[in-house]
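Q&A log
Question type: sequence-to-structure
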Amino acid sequence: MSDKKERTLIIAAGAIVGLFGALLVKFGNPKNMGFCIACFLRDIAGAVGLHKAAVVQYIRPEIIGLVLGAFIIALATKEFKPKGGSSPFTRFFLAFFVMVGALVFLGCPLRMVLRMAGGDLNAYIGFVGFVCGILCGVFFLNKGFSLKRSYAQPALEGAGISIVMVALLVLLVAAPAFIAFSESGPGSMRAPLAIALCAGLIVGAAAQKSRLCMVGGIRDVVLFKDFKLITGFAVIFVVCLIANLALGNFKLSMAEQPVAHTESLWNFLGLFLVGLGSCLLGGCPLRQLILAGEGNGDSAVAVLGFIVGAAFCHNFGLASSGNGTTPAGRIACIIGIAVCAIIGFMNLNNDQ
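Response status: OK
Response body:
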C-alpha cells in the first residue's frame, strides 16, 4: 500500500471515530464517552456478573461491533490470520494493569482524546502522562524488549473472540434475567442498540484497515520519525471537537467534568501506566480489540486481561469515581508501574 493511500485511510478512520465519538453521546452514551474501550469492557464485565457495581453494568454493542467489524473486513480482505503463543501469561498481566491505570484515570486512550475534545483539562494532564509512559516503553523497545514470536493457530482459535461477541449480542437482545442492566449511572446511559452496533461495526472496519492505534502513533514518531499513525490521533480530536462545539457538548474546565476527577497526579500516573503497559503489549486497548478480531489470540488474551482487570478494580475498590481516586487504586497504580517495568527488564534481548 502506498504512503498516500495509507495516510488517507488513517485520516478517514480518524474522522469516523471522532464523528461517532460525538454522535454516540448525542444518541445517549455518557458525556465524553462516545467510545471508551476500558469503560465499555468494565460495563460488560458487570453485565455478566463479574462485578456487582450496579451503575456500570451493560453489554455494550460498540465493543461487539468493533470486534466483529474487524473480523468481517479481515475475512473479506484475506487478512484474517489466526496466530498466538507470544507470552500469553505476560500479556494477560500487562493488560490487567493497563486496565487498572485506565480506571484510575477513568478512561482508555481513546476516551482521553474524546475528553480532550470535550474541553476536559484533566485529560490533557493525563495525555502528558500517557506520552511519558510510551516514552518509557520505547526505552525498553530500544533495548531489545520482546515478548517473542507468535505461531499459526487453527481458524477456530482465531475466531474464538468473535464467536464470544456474537454470543454476547444474543444475550443483549434476549436480555435474560441473569444479565444485569444498570438502571442509573453511566451504565444506564446508552445509545440505541442498532445505532451503537452499527457505529462499532463501522469503526471496527475502519480501524482494521487503517491500523489505527493511540499508542502506535506516538511510538512511531519517536522510533521512526513516522507521523502517519499520529495523524489519525489528531483527526479524531479535531473532528470530535468540531462536532462537540456544534452539538453544544464542549465545556472547557477541570471541575465538574462528566465521569472524571480532578486529581492531577493520578490522572498523570494512571495514563502513564496505560501508556507503558500498552507500548509493551504492542498497541492500545482499541488496537488489541481489532487485532483480536483479526484472529490474533495474544490480543484476545489481552482483552480477557482487560475484562478481569476491570472486574478486579470494582470488586476491590481500585476504580476511581467522579469524587476522586481511592487509596487502593493509588497503590495498585504504583504496583502496576513497577510490574510493567519489571516485565520490561525481564524481557530484554541480552544481545542489545
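Response note: Residues 3-346 form one domain.
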